[in-house]
Amino acid sequence: MTKTYIAAGSIALASIATAQSLFVEDPNEGQSESLPIQYTVTAGIGYDDYFTSTQDEDASSSAYANAALGANYVNASPQTTWKIGAYLSANKYFDDDSSGSGVYYNARLNLDVNHRINERTRYVSTNNLNYGVEPEYTFSFTTANQSSEQLYYSSDHAIGHRWTSRLATYTGVRLNGVSYHGGNGDENDRTTYGFYNNFRYSLSPVSTVTANFSYNETDASGSAGDATDITGSIGIERQLSDRSYFTAQVGATRRDVDGGRDSYYTPYVNAALNTRVNSQLNLRTFVRYGVENYGTSQGSNTFDTNESIRVGLSADYAVSSKLSLNAGINYIKQDYSDGRDTITNRSIGDTDRELINPYVGFTYRIGHNTSINGSYNYSDSSSSDGVNEFDRNRVQIGVSRVF
Fold first, then answer.
1. CATH number for the domain including 46?
2. Least trusted range by pLDDT, from 30-39, 159-168, 253-262, 339-348
3. Domain extent at residue 337
């Protein structure tokens, strides 16, 4: 069922496998059957009490109408499996007088490929596009409420090889970034190119240890300098039970910024837990701490360092065969330091931003392929410099049909 709200955190947690494997990072592990293409059509209405239009940075309240179309398809064969998902929606804000039509678009496209070259070697690719006005807190965006659509893109291509029954490696390249369209956010456009290698060693049928290395170059717009980040970490992946899986990495990043201070180190932590408590309740949580390149340009000011912590928790509960509930919370804290004015080259003080985002939703099936769904989403943003502070409430209700 395609929902009309974004449960931030679900994308990151979807990569957690449900069975132990030296190829556990494979996004299609365990998918053995093809699924026909499935469409979902959604129509709904909602209300947003802190909407920021394209032309006016002053937020206002507005009711809106929503229409969306989603599609999913899986093609599985003994050698190659690929999945594709697409989503397109439009929101019409009735009180948005400053932006002309008052229509804003959101779109997502996901493509995962797993090609088994032979019994020991495979090619794995994950590709994502996410376009829209709303920030996606799972990705490495700032907590700012932008006044224009943004495009987040990522493409990851790796070769996985099992050298022995216990040892495997993943070697790959990544491209990711964000581009702001219109408004005043293009100074924070970023593009990152990376290379990585992961060693995986199986301790037992349920436990794998990892040693991970990545090298990333970021091209920055605005006042920020280009950056080089080198990260090393060790990790553990463990199947706690047939319903529970845990993964974690701990390490450090060495960072260099053009025009900034000499290289320095920052901690890196990434952990997630996926557990099915019983046949009705499923819980997912993640925590990530490390340096990010996003949001560091603020006019002529720039910060070399954006150390961020992101925490997400989501839960799905099947009340009955017809009614299901979901809820979650996201927390983001970003500390900006090593700042300077690029015109005067004078140092500027550190600043921080914080956002908390709880949400709840429901889906009620009224027919074989038809459901009513609704959601409530709250955001509270604060900062030490008084910039981008707001409280926001959004509520939406709609009808979805699958065919």
1. 2.40.160
2. 30-39
3. 10-402
